[in-house]
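Hello K.,

You asked for the raw outputs rather than the summary table, so here they are, unedited. I folded two proteins back to back in the same session to keep the settings identical. This is the first:
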Amino acid sequence: MPTPSEELRRRIVADINAGMPGAKLGSERDLAERYDTSRSSLRQVLAALEEAGLVHRVIGRSGGIFISQVQVQRSLSDVVGVPAFLVNQGYVAGTRVLSTKITAPDRTSQKALRLGANNFVVEIQRVRLADGSPISLELAQFPADAFPGLLEQQLSGSIYEILEKRYGLVTSQAEERIEAVNATADEAALLGIKAKSALLLITRITYDQHGTPCEFSRDLFRGDRTRLAVTVQGRGIGIQSPAGSASVALQSESAQTTG
């Protein structure tokens, strides 16, 4: 059960998502009446939304609370890089490369990429930007033997485009697992948010046109700036879903507390 403050935040965010950047939500008095809340409670929620970059306040007779940015929508139905879906939604996409290296993969990466104990991966860590504001933190690994010279390429754009143009690889499908997590202090600093803020962790294995895994990545998207969208088909009662369809799995409380 959400708290009154959380419920108020959700209602305001829903109105932000339904509006357009630059549109006026209203004055504090108008909003307090609209949401049937006190102005002190409203100010607390608006302060958090303003810090997150979703709204901004204009002082004066024609002032009020205005929409700054709508949430970025990420489709779960397509294998597409972050710059592509940002541009398609009208944002100016940007990237800050944090680190690059060739390293030995851990066991999880070995299994995901089907590598042996003596293989190496190219590891790239980047911050993705939407209109100059951090939207996600990504850590991607690629089999080093399959992509010689990858670190010599321009890594501030789409790596998928590099893989296709330079190496002849086409991403055919991806397996993704989505979890809600809280930002660590380091992650929060890189994303410009408070520690323990909500994040969406998307763990992805991407396959090429031959069915070979070519990427293993862990992307952290800001929960306040991201919404997920997926297109599904109804097949009727009693008809089994085909392999590869979406599913939802609930973690046990013990798994959540020990993870």
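The second followed immediately with the same parameters:
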Amino acid sequence: MKVEYDRETCIGIFQCVDEWDAFQKDLDAGKADLQDAEEVEEDVFVREIPEDAEFDAKFAARVCPVEAIRIIDDDGEQLIP
């Protein structure tokens, strides 16, 4: 399972930071950063979700008010939002 994060869409509410420690605040930019992620296209970051963090990652995606976070299963299907 992977998380895909569109940093351009982020509006800096930081609810994801409260839900999953893979997200960190970048107060200078007013955006969250996804730690240990690979930039796959401009401002779009992807990383694997450890099994023990799946619940937190899914919750981070659900609470994002602008749907900047997507959860993708191993078959490439979008689970959340």
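The first strand starts at residue 2 and ends at 6.

Happy to rerun anything if the numbers look odd on your end.

Regards,
P.
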